[in-house]
Design goal:
Elements: H1 2-29, E1 32-34, E2 43-50, H2 57-66, E3 72-75, H3 77-82, H4 84-92, E4 96-99, H5 112-130, E5 137-138, H6 147-155, E6 160-162, E7 166-167, H7 176-184, E8 191-196, H8 204-217, E9 221-222, H9 225-229, E10 238-240, H10 247-253, H11 258-264, E11 278-280, E12 292-297, H12 304-310, H13 315-322, E13 335-340, E14 349-353, H14 360-366, H15 371-377, E15 391-395
Parallel strand pairs: 1-6, 2-3, 2-8, 2-9, 3-4, 5-6, 7-8
Antiparallel strand pairs: 10-11, 12-13, 14-15
Helix pairs in contact: 2-8, 5-6, 7-8
Length: 396
């Protein structure tokens, strides 16, 4: 009798353990909803949502660079397709990028399959443009979410759904002063600030310098979302612990040591891990590409900054390689040595037919080139005078 009861209790315990293990895994799969960082430190995350219209992206990037601030951008697939070079600029500048869906639908009104399709298409588009990933962070279009949304995006690999605690509502066309005051007057440690990159948020570029200055004066430091939440680096390999796993078995699976695995995850007791726990798998850093040099002949409208951006290098590196003491002084026809770690982009041209409402400035922005470069390519002497139906050669 005792044996039968012991056997029954053992089976019951095993079933209960399995049930709890699977429940833990299901819970762990849901995306964590975040409105601000859980910290008393004076840190703030500036975030920008990018839709199909990213008019102000490069202005925002210039301001962030000038002020040595890293931010987080949430991009849509339609935006990536509409202005891929601007998205590439965001990634090259070292900012964090998260997924904001493909076509910006309300996720609470579509199926899980549709949600995951939206996320996958944007992830693919972003990888094609930058070679990087939008995981592990997601921002819901319109900020609309529920338990089903969190489960669906969590299962797709987006472990954190990022909301905000300061909404600038800059998309309404508010003035720079109003936007700045909204942020500075409501700032608290761990704040996440919502702004936008589109033309509708016309006051945002003007607000940023003063906003950053005033927040710094209050003692605030600027961080990305991953820094704020202490998430694994973007693109890091992670593993979710399953029932029966040990650090030894996981280390063996990924060909790393238990000690390295413990160190990467701040584990003090190597015998204690839990089902559903997400572990960062340490990997060897890839060998950096060899540094090569190419030659570039300066054209009308070029600046050292635009040349450096084209070749994914820095102004100071070009200046050093060419013994330039004044980085604002280069001349047309000058041959520069460009230190670079990538193959130079081919020089191509496209044709564009002028539409009603176009200006050379708006066309230049669309193709990530300069007004003077378009004017030179088309022998335009008056940059304010173009006509509807005119076919322009766009140097890229």
């Amino acid at each position: 009798m005792f044996f039968k009861w012991s056997k029954l209790l053992a089976i019951t315990g095993l079933l209960l353990f399995s049930l709890l293990s699977f429940t833990g895994q299901a819970d762990a799969a849901s995306s964590t909803f975040v409105t601000k960082g859980n910290t008393t430190s004076k840190v703030v995350a500036l975030t920008f949502d990018d839709g199909a219209d990213g008019t102000n992206i490069n202005k925002i990037l210039d301001i962030l660079k000038t002020n040595n601030v890293k931010a987080t951008f949430f991009v849509t697939g339609t935006g990536i397709n509409h202005h891929p070079s601007w998205i590439r600029n965001i990634a090259n500048a070292g900012h964090q990028v998260g997924n904001h869906s493909y076509s910006h639908p309300d996720f609470t009104k579509i199926s899980i399959a549709a949600m995951q399709s939206e996320l996958a298409k944007t992830e693919t588009a972003y990888k094609n443009v930058t070679g990087k990933s939008t995981k592990p962070i997601f921002r819901a279009p319109f900020g609309a979410y529920n338990a089903t949304v969190l489960k669906g995006v969590g299962d797709a690999g987006y472990t954190h759904t990022i909301q905000w605690n300061i909404d600038t509502i800059d998309w309404r066309g508010l003035s720079s002063t109003v936007i700045t005051d909204k942020v500075v007057n409501n700032i608290v440690p761990g704040s996440i600030v919502l702004m936008h990159t589109g033309a509708g948020a016309s006051g945002t570029p003007g607000a940023l310098p003063g906003m950053i200055s005033k927040l710094k004066a209050k003692g605030y430091k600027f961080v990305t979302i991953s820094e704020l939440l202490k998430l694994p680096p973007t693109g890091a390999t992670t593993y979710t612990v399953k029932a029966g796993d040990t650090l030894y078995s996981i280390a063996k699976k990924y060909n790393v040591t238990v000690a390295a695995l413990a160190a990467a995850n701040n584990i003090t007791n190597v015998n204690l891990i839990r089902v559903g726990q997400v572990l960062v798998i340490p990997v060897k850093a890839p060998t950096p590409p060899p540094v090569t040099t190419v030659k570039y002949t300066v054209k009308a409208g070029d600046t050292l900054y635009s040349i450096a951006s084209k070749y994914n290098t820095t102004v100071s590196a070009i200046a050093t390689a060419n013994k330039i003491t004044n980085v604002n002084l280069i001349h047309v026809g000058q041959v520069l040595i460009i230190p670079t770690t990538q193959t130079p982009p081919p020089v191509t041209t496209v044709k564009y037919t002028v539409k009603a409402g176009d200006t050379l400035y708006s066309i230049a922005r669309t193709y990530n080139t300069t007004v003077s470069a378009i004017a030179t390519a088309n022998k335009i002497t008056n940059v304010n005078l173009i006509s509807v139906g005119q076919v322009l050669i766009i140097p890229r």
